[in-house]
């Protein structure tokens, strides 16, 4: 993010903030959608986050940390929306440029479904680390900074999340064709 733009927005320049929001909005929304698995909730969380950014931007001490700060605000907004709705059904969305009709799309759909079921079993804190690290491609120190946690905590959450995902995928693989571990536990 252009620091000069952030500094201008901190001083109350609405046009500068509009430029920032235009650049960030779609990325923030995709992260919110991955965390909440609901377009409506993601819309609400993203809009709330952008509003909070505008309100609190003058309090940001270091313009270089704007991006991590903005994702932290987004994650807090997602937590708030999740508490309001109690409809946490996280999913990992497909990128807009993926072609579902491409060769192997059927197996891709199955893999995405299996991954989504495993992802759904993770705690919100684990999902946050997974989305920031794997979806945004952030290194763990940046993830930790955005979440306001120590790097060691981010590492352990990621490790536990990946272990849980592996266990869920392995459990699904051991079940007879057409049955899933999530169905077995609900019986």
In words, what does this structure look like?
By secondary structure, this protein is mostly helical. It folds into two domains: 83 residues, Rna Polymerase Sigma Factor, Chain: A (Orthogonal Bundle); 77 residues, Winged helix-like DNA-binding domain superfamily/Winged helix DNA-binding domain (Arc Repressor Mutant, subunit A, Orthogonal Bundle). 72% of the residues lie in helices and 0% in strands. It has nine helices and no strands. Helix 2 packs across helix 4, helix 6 packs across helix 8 and helix 7 crosses helix 8.
Radius of gyration: 18 Å
Main beta sheet: strand number and arrangement? none
The CATH homologous superfamily of the largest domain corresponds to RNA polymerase sigma factor, region 2, helix turn helix motif
In the CATH hierarchy, what is the architecture of the largest domain at level 2?
Answer: Orthogonal Bundle
Provide the fold topology.
Layout: H1 3-10, H2 14-36, H3 39-56, H4 66-85, H5 105-120, H6 124-135, H7 140-147, H8 151-174, H9 181-185
Helix pairs in contact: 1-2, 2-3, 2-4, 3-4, 4-7, 5-8, 6-7, 6-8, 7-8
Question: Summarize this, please?
Answer:
This protein has helices spanning 3-10, 14-36, 39-56, 66-85, 105-120, 124-135, 140-147, 151-174, 181-185. The protein has 187 residues and is mainly alpha-helical.
Give me some keywords for this one.
about 190 residues, mainly alpha, Rna Polymerase Sigma Factor, Chain: A, Arc Repressor Mutant, subunit A, 2 domains, about 0% strand
């Amino acid at each position: 993010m252009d620091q000069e733009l952030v500094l201008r927005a901190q001083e109350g320049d609405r046009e500068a903030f509009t430029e920032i929001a235009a650049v960030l909005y779609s990325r923030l929304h995709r992260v919110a959608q991955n965390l909440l698995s609901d377009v409506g909730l993601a819309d609400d969380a993203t809009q709330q986050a952008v509003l909070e950014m505008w309100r609190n931007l003058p309090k940001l001490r270091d313009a270089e940390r704007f991006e991590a700060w903005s994702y932290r605000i987004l994650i807090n907004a997602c937590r708030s929306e999740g508490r309001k709705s109690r409809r946490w059904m996280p999913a990992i969305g497909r990128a807009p440029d993926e072609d579902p009709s491409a060769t192997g799309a059927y197996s891709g759909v199955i893999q995405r479904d299996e991954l989504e079921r495993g992802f759904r079993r993770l705690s919100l804190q684990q999902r946050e680390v997974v989305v920031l690290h794997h979806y945004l491609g952030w290194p763990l120190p940046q993830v930790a900074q955005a979440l306001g946690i120590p790097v060691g905590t981010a590492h352990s959450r990621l490790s536990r999340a990946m272990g849980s995902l592996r266990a869920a995928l392995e459990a699904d693989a051991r079940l007879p064709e057409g049955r899933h571990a999530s169905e077995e536990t609900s019986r």
